[in-house]
């Protein structure tokens, strides 16, 4: 009876937590599905569900260009950062490199440094390089921030893999890169998937860098920046249209998470197990 009661309480708490977490998103979704121009307050189911607000938001907000910009920036950052993180994590976690602890300390410093403190120096650096208003102005700093997290993440995971696997590959004549590619990467696939998912979420939702570095080029604005300008425009102040724009911006992130949910959970659980 005690075990059954504990299970019921646990499930009840999980359901309650899920409702609390989903309430803001469902409120925005219900508001977006109402008829255009209708004023509502709080959570209200639409009497006549309509996609008119989504059409208005798409046409007025220019989100097609913003989605393309976000896909280009996010895709580039994720691919490059994951590749560099895997290589750096392997080198620092497995290979016997001199000053490895010093290098890891530098990466940890990049994680603890206040993010906002780096924006102004980055702005002046990109201005000096003539990159303001271009994709590289956002991509390069994002890669740097992501590699700091990714290297620490992959170093810990590679370090938890039994050394016997690497030694067996070396006995068979495999080189260091071959050991990484054919032995360690298949084992670390869940961790790489989690890292890619996290970097996708962080990069897609990045707002401050896009606002500061891409403000001179409206065509290169990312979706969070485009949503901010759209929501702040008094001419587009209809709550339903603004809610629809927010759903459009969040939809790719939601789809990516749902698609990678199982791998994401497997990677987190696998990373929590130390051999």
UniProtKB/TrEMBL annotation:
Top-level taxon: Bacteria
Identification of the protein by name: Carbohydrate ABC transporter permease
Localization terms from the record: Cell membrane
Domain ABC transmembrane type-1: 67-260
Keyword Transmembrane helix in annotation: yes
Taxonomic lineage: Bacteria, Bacillati, Actinomycetota, Actinomycetes, Jiangellales
Species of the source: Jiangella aurantiaca
Keywords: Cell membrane, Membrane, Transmembrane, Transmembrane helix, Transport
Positions of transmembrane segments: 12-33, 66-90, 102-123, 135-158, 179-204, 242-260
Family note: Belongs to the binding-protein-dependent transport system permease family.
Gene Ontology cellular component terms for the protein in this record: plasma membrane
InterPro entries: MetI-like (IPR000515), MetI-like_sf (IPR035906)
Membrane topology summary: Multi-pass membrane protein
Pfam family, one: BPD_transp_1
Major localisation: membrane
The keyword rRNA-binding appears for this protein: no
Any single GO BP term: transmembrane transport
């Amino acid at each position: 009876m005690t075990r059954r009661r504990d299970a019921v309480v646990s499930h009840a708490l999980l359901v309650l937590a899920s409702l609390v977490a989903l309430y803001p998103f469902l409120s925005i979704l219900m508001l977006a599905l109402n008829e255009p121009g209708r004023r509502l307050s709080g959570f209200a189911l639409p009497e006549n569900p309509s996609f008119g607000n989504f059409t208005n938001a798409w046409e007025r907000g220019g989100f097609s260009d913003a989605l393309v910009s976000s896909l280009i920036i996010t895709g580039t950052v994720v691919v490059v950062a994951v590749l560099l993180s895997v290589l750096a994590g392997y080198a620092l976690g497995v290979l016997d490199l001199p000053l490895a602890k010093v290098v890891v300390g530098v990466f940890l410093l990049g994680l603890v440094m206040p993010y906002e403190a780096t924006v102004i120096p980055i702005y002046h650096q990109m201005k000096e390089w003539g990159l303001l208003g271009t994709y590289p102005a956002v991509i390069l700093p994002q890669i740097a921030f992501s590699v700091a997290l990714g290297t620490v993440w992959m170093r810990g995971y590679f370090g938890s893999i039994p050394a016997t696997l690497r030694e067996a590959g070396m006995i068979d004549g495999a080189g260091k890169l071959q050991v990484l590619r054919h032995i360690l990467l298949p084992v670390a696939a869940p961790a790489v998937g989690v890292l890619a998912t996290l970097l996708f979420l962080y990069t897609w939702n990045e707002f401050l860098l896009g606002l500061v570095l891409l403000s001179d080029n409206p065509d290169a604005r990312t979706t969070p920046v485009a949503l901010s300008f759209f929501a702040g425009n008094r001419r587009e102040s209809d709550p339903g249209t603004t809610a629809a724009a927010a759903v459009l911006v969040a939809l790719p992130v939601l789809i990516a998470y749902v698609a990678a949910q199982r791998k994401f959970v497997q990677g987190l659980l696998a990373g929590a197990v130390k051999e």
